[in-house]
Specification:
34% strand; 3-stranded antiparallel beta sheet; 53 residues; single chain
């Protein structure tokens, strides 16, 4: 599906992938395809456990 948006010019779309089970840090990956054919990737995690001492 992503290939369609990469190969089709002037399309703007965002995708997110995450897993609800066995993902204690709530890691999510995102991909945004801009209308000027740029790909922006993101990685997000729940930071509250990283801040514990």
């Amino acid at each position: 599906m992503i290939n369609y948006f990469i190969d089709t010019p002037s399309v703007n779309e965002t995708f997110y992938w995450h897993k609800h089970h066995d993902n204690p840090d709530k890691i999510m990956i995102g991909a945004m395809i801009t209308d000027n054919d740029k790909l922006i990737m993101s990685l997000t995690a729940d930071g509250k456990d990283f801040m514990r001492k």
